[in-house]
Write a structure and sequence with these properties.
Layout: H1 4-36, H2 53-80, H3 99-151, H4 155-161, H5 165-226, H6 244-270, E1 292-294, E2 297-300, E3 307-310, E4 313-315, E5 322-324, E6 329-335, E7 343-344, E8 350-357, E9 360-370, E10 377-378, E11 383-387, E12 389-390, E13 398-404, E14 407-409, H7 412-415
Parallel strand pairs: 7-12
Antiparallel strand pairs: 1-4, 2-3, 4-13, 5-11, 6-8, 6-10, 8-9, 9-11, 9-13, 13-14
Helix pairs in contact: 1-5, 2-3, 3-5, 4-5
Length: 416
């Protein structure tokens, strides 16, 4: 006959076996997690250089001042065009300019307006990048605080702190999900850091360049206003100094032209006899965003009054997004001067060129990474690169070009 003591002993054995079983199952299920998990101290440190609040406040103040200047010059342009503002007593003096002087005044005022608009755009870009960086910093800090909470806890401690076995596995799953997503968070934070630095450098230089032009144009307007009532000779035309950024764009155009013959030579050496892909047959090279943000062709610069050639089309605009081959082909050229970086370099930055046969080739510029090598065969829609903002670029995007026998043509004819 079973005694009470024997029953107690038997129950203890069963309980012990259950606990052993739970611990064994738990250890098996979390082994993979423990081997893949890296403590917070093992994660790479990202140096975050948020601009000082003083710098941000100064940029906002400059933006507001620029907006006021734009309002003022728009009122003067409206007055000269005979709009309602022409009756404003504060602007009536403009009507006393001679016809020749009014024409000059309107032209110079338009150039001043363009310079101020470019300055405002640069400041907007800078402020937006700082806001994005602050947001990513908060996300990263939150992520790290959660990881730090668990990094020094043993598996048994997590189990003991859980309400139940189900709660234990929920906590383990939470930590695992955080660990899996952490690399993406760090990539996004690094992109935000790089983007903020690039746009800060660009905005500071562009604001200086455009303000110098604005000052010059304002001086010309002041000179014209001083001639009211006189029949003076036409104001001598003065050419604004080319800004640092315009010089970089000129260099990019030169690089593009130099690639024409190089690509033609590489295609001839390849001796590929397949038929050329017809117009309208190519896959969109930036999946998910089917918009052309900057078209192909000549454009008149609003300040320098020179024709600028945009040799391709600009698509997309998110760091890390995939870039795919527009058609089947063979990789004939890869250049990665700043491999793996979100920004940096000059010209096209990191780029790849694919030959599609029949003299047709495509170029994919400003990449963060190129994932293929010269000689690789690729198929339409296959990922070949990662979106970035390397080279002469002020934000993440894909610069996509199509050449036929080495000569640039409108890519929109092939992808739309």
């Amino acid at each position: 006959m079973e005694t009470a003591a024997n029953r107690i002993q038997h129950n203890k054995k069963i309980t012990f076996r259950v606990i052993k079983y739970i611990l064994l199952v738990s250890c098996v299920m979390i082994t993979g997690f423990l081997f893949s998990y890296q403590p917070v101290s093992a994660y790479p440190q990202i140096v975050i250089s948020l601009a000082d609040q003083e710098d941000i406040d100064e940029a906002r103040q400059k933006k507001e001042e620029t907006e006021d200047q734009l309002d003022d010059i728009q009122a003067k342009i409206d007055a000269l065009k005979g709009d309602a503002s022409s009756l404003d007593s504060d602007l009536s003096y403009l009507n006393q300019l001679s016809a020749e002087q009014q024409e000059q005044y309107e032209e110079i005022a338009g150039e001043l307006q363009a310079a101020l608009t470019e300055k405002q755009t640069a400041l907007d870009m800078y402020l937006q990048s700082q806001d994005t960086l602050a947001q990513k910093q908060t996300e990263y800090s939150t992520r790290m605080s959660v990881m730090f909470e668990y990094q020094n806890m043993s598996t048994l401690e997590i189990m003991l702190e859980s309400d139940s076995v189900a709660g234990f596995f929920t906590n383990i799953e939470l930590i695992s999900l955080i660990g899996d997503a952490d690399q993406q968070i760090m990539d996004e934070l690094q992109a935000a850091v790089d983007d903020a630095q690039m746009k800060s450098d660009y905005a500071q230089q562009e604001a200086i360049d455009m303000q110098a032009i604005a000052d010059q144009k304002q001086a010309e307007l002041d000179d014209l206003e001083s001639r009211i009532g006189q029949t003076a000779d036409a104001l001598e035309e003065t050419q604004a100094d080319i800004s640092a950024w315009e010089e970089k764009e000129d260099e990019l155009e030169a690089v593009s032209d130099s690639l024409d013959s190089q690509i033609a030579q590489l295609q001839a050496a390849l001796k590929k006899s397949t038929a050329a892909p017809p117009e309208g047959s190519m896959t969109w090279p930036y999946p998910g965003d089917y918009t052309i943000y900057s078209p192909f062709g000549m454009r008149m610069h609003p300040i320098y009054h020179v024709q600028k050639m945009h040799t391709g089309v600009d698509l997309g605009g998110v760091y890390g997004n995939p870039i795919v081959a527009a058609a089947d082909g063979t990789v004939i050229l890869v250049s990665e001067p700043v491999e793996g970086q979100n920004t940096g370099g000059s010209g096209y930055g990191n780029y790849v060129v694919i030959d599609h046969g029949g003299g047709v080739s495509t170029l994919y510029g400003h990449c963060k990474d190129v994932l293929v090598a010269v000689g690789d065969t690729v198929t339409a829609g296959e990922q070949i690169a990662v979106c970035g903002s390397t080279g002469t670029s002020t934000g993440a995007h894909l610069h996509f070009e199509v050449r036929v026998n080495g000569q640039k043509v409108n890519p929109a004819d092939y992808i739309t």
